[in-house]
Write a structure and sequence with these properties.
Elements (H helix, E strand, L loop, with lengths): L2 H13 L2 H8 L3 H15 L4 E4 L2 E4 L1 H26 L6 E8 L8 H11 L3 E8 L1 H10 L4 E5 L7 E16 L11 E2 L1 H4 L3 E4 L5 H12 L5 E5 L3 H9 L5 E4 H7 L5 E6 L5 E9 L6 H29 L10
Parallel strand pairs: 3-4, 3-5, 7-11, 8-9
Antiparallel strand pairs: 1-2, 5-12, 6-10, 6-11, 6-12
């Protein structure tokens, strides 16, 4: 299978239009169409359906797209490794980070450590849904992923690294939800409109389950996956959200929000480092995994002081440190 054609196919799927994909690849539309046709002949199935607005991916095309991403990543990793030689750790290492978690807050510290200690390691950080990340590890699209615990997944090694309680997060611009203390009940929270990820996300599932168990309705006014959009929407008072404290510290400035513990509902989950169970990590990936665990240890060491400070802030505690 021609990896160049796989790369062309992935670009078409990402853009959704052959003409624009051809422009981005600096080849003609007819040449790109010929490459796609040749790939379809090679795998003996239709991958794309042409429409008036562009292209739609067939079920077979979606399957190939997932595998193609892993194949292309491995090819890039091999080129980086071979080019660097054997004198120093080198290679492409891809780390997946769960959205709506503390994981993105580790991205810059991890990148800094890798650049300082292993300058020939090419670090790639990506963010997506937990369910997608676990599959990405299995398919070889990422070397490892720091995600909300997915439970048992065949072929996946899961190491729990941190447990956290979720908190209600509201804008500091709106009146306090609780008249005293830093706790709220699920009933008090049910009067709010929530900004949460979609129903596949762990944060959403745990939140919905807690309200349902209490016989209450969680009113979701908007579904948002992007961290920056979430931040701006919550700060402006468009809705509340649910996050671990560490994730709230990553997304918000200390004086922008109020954080409340749930008094009558245990909204809790674990973060886990996931790696392939059968395929061992490359030397470069193993070094990055060690650095990631080091960052996690430093984060764990900071959790207790953070919680204490938040409890000490009085009514409608904020994230001031």
């Amino acid at each position: 299978m021609d990896t160049r054609r796989l790369a062309y196919f992935v670009r078409v799927v990402d853009i959704g239009n052959i003409t624009r994909a051809a422009d981005s690849l600096h080849i003609t539309q007819s040449a790109l169409s010929q490459h796609i046709s040749a790939l379809e002949n090679d795998v003996k199935t239709r991958l794309l359906e042409r429409t008036g607005r562009g292209v739609e991916v067939t079920p077979s095309g979606r399957s190939l797209y997932r595998y193609a991403q892993g194949i292309l990543r491995l090819e890039k990793a091999a080129r980086i490794d071979l080019h660097a030689g054997s004198d120093t750790p080198a290679g492409l290492v891809t780390v997946g980070l769960a959205s709506y978690s503390m994981a993105p807050g580790l991205a810059v510290p991890l990148l800094r450590m890798v650049r300082e200690r292993y300058p020939n390691i090419h670090l790639q950080l990506i963010q997506n849904l937990t369910v997608v990340m676990s599959q990405a590890v299995l398919l070889g699209q990422v070397d490892m992923a720091l995600i909300y615990d997915p439970g048992y997944v065949k072929g996946l090694g899961v190491q729990q690294v941190l447990e956290e309680d979720f908190h209600l997060i509201t804008s500091a611009k709106i009146p306090p939800i609780a008249s005293r203390g830093d706790t709220v009940t699920l009933k008090q929270a049910s009067r709010l409109g929530f900004i949460l990820p979609n129903e596949l996300h762990t944060v959403r599932r745990i939140t919905d389950a807690a309200f349902h168990a209490a016989g209450l309705h969680c009113s979701v006014v908007a579904e948002v996956e992007t961290g920056m959009v979430l931040r701006d929407a919550v700060v402006s008072g468009l809705g509340a959200t649910v996050l671990p404290l560490s994730a709230a510290k990553t997304h918000f400035a200390p004086d922008e929000i109020r954080a409340y513990r749930f008094a009558d509902g245990r909204l809790r989950t674990a973060m886990s480092l996931c790696t392939p169970e059968v395929q061992p990590l490359s030397d470069a990936a193993a070094l990055v995994a060690d650095l990631l665990c080091q960052s996690l240890q430093e984060s764990r060491d900071c959790q207790a002081p953070v919680t204490t400070r938040m409890k000490a802030t009085g009514p409608a505690s904020s994230l001031r440190t």
